[in-house]
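=== RUN LOG ===
request id: a7f3
mode: sequence -> structure
chains: 1
length: 349
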Amino acid sequence: MSPRGPVSVLERHTFDTLIDVRSPAEYALDHIPGAINCPALDNEERHIVGTLYKQQGAFEARRVGGAMVAANIARHLRERFADQPASWRPLVYCWRGGMRSSSVVQWLRLVGWDAQQLAGGYKAWRRHAITLLETICPQLPLRVLCGPTGSAKTRILHALARQGAQVIDLEGCARHRGSVLGTLPGVAQPSQTAFETLLAQQVEGLDTSRPVYVEAESSRIGRLTVPMPLIRHLRASPCIEIQAGTSERLAFLLRDYAHLGDDRAALAQTLGTMRELHGQQVIDRWQAWAAEGALRPLFAELMALHYDPLYARSQSTHLYQWAQRQPVQAQNLTDEGIARVAQDILALP
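=== RESULT ===
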């Protein structure tokens, strides 16, 4: 099977399988959405070859690396690729479309598969993702969901998606809820590049003639930074404010953040990071409630003393159309209530 010319990132969807032949560590940091990892060199082998290249030159690195690559390709042929039919069409990429992917492509073609190499490799995808965020984000007709902590904005965003609306789920991509207590239990945040890849994947499929709903966020979600083209456009877009009663919000927080009571020491430690904002006496009280698992009084004071004042200050400062916001009343924040709020949002002019 002979090559048919360079394959671009835009053509990746026309292939049966997208194969990332970089090391597992490179793949874990970020990869093209949907790609499977079949390394030409594993983490240790890549380190060995790199060291040989620096110390003894390209020939020795290729001699030793070539044997490693051949062994890994043989294993993939026996295992990962064993059941693929003759008609299988894989697209293969490495870091920049170099020797690792070309070696794998040659072997797959020798078998008889129509294997192709992605021109430019992962770096071509990275350029594509950045360009997507820079060019498409400013064109999106965003509708920004606002509301104080506990008003179920993320759940309402998901309800909008279930009802057929277009959404960008920033917190879902960041794997973080965006607040000081926003760490998800047992879930690590992705790398910055992987976060941007997930956003680019969401943005790529959006219809710019239809509204796109997004939750109001600061420029940072946990340790990740929202790409500037998106945050700038978000701040300049029309706002929808979810209005819910304090008791409903507290009840929602107690349901949605119940997991914080599972690790009381970690909760108390996180609260300690707010000492400069609220003073020793307040933090001591909050940490005592955390140690007891008393989430109701803790969340009630967090709302009254921290989240609500912060919300009142930040919206008019960071959202330029805040004064023209459209209010939507939430009677309750049960699953049924959240679905009704989503319906009311979709009915807005």
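=== NOTES ===
The mean pLDDT is 95.
Residues 295-318 form the longest helix (24 residues).
=== END ===
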